[in-house]
Fold:
Amino acid sequence: MAMTNPPALLSPSAVMRDAPVIPVIVLDEVRHAVPLARALVEGGIRMLEVTLRTPVALQCIEAIANEVPGAVAGAGTVRSTAEAQACVRAGAKFAVSPGYTTAVGRACRDLGLPLLPGVATGSEIMAAAEDGYTELKFFPAMQAGGVAMLKAWAGPFIDTRFCPTGGVNAANAREFLALPNVLCVGGSWLTPAEAVRAGEWARITALAREAVGLRGG
Structure:
């Protein structure tokens, strides 16, 4: 039986509109989760996508959710109903998936968990839209056509908005953000692995502030 939660306070659109960049976070040690989240929040980035790519990811989400009031802990790389359920138990307030299936979409809706489904083709956009999802992650953005693909989609998918992720960085983010069908971008450049390992939280705060300045600049 699907788990149910009260209706989500967030919508996918609200997640995407909060800041120009959603950081894609990979954490190998739980001890880094809270100081990293605090550094990002101090720089103006609240929506934090912690990917389920490491064994400690759920523990990191739980730590951020419990100890960093200004942060909105989210889960990335969500690929199944079971993972969506585990993320909610850990305290995640939104989810991001690398692709889309109806099972994952329905599970997140039953859980009251806002979902940004991953798409790379027109057929996937249509499948997600049939299930009510029109705010989507375009992944892998650069490999799947980049800015040119998003421009091509603007006509047939006029009611769809995207968060391009995958190959997006500080050098090309503005080009994506200038598109009318892009609400934000996702990227890992806000949390360089070497900076996290070294505890260079001031550097991460500075990167977050730069990212906030991308909108309208």
In short: The chain has a mean pLDDT of 95. The chain is about 40% helix and 15% strand. The longest helix spans residues 201-212.
